[in-house]
Amino acid sequence: MHIELTEMLRCPEPHELGVLVLSTGEMLGRMVRSGIVGCPICKREYPIVHGVVDFTGRGTRDVGRGPAATRPPSPVLRPDDAQTLQALLDLSGPGGFIVLVGDGVRHAVGLAGLRGGVHFIGVNAPSDAEELPVLSLVRAAGVIPLRPAMARGVVLGADVAAPPWFEEGQRVLLRGRRFVVEREDVVPPPGIRQLAAGQGLWAGEKS
Question: Rounded distance, CA 205 to CA 207, Å?
Answer without folding.
Answer: 6
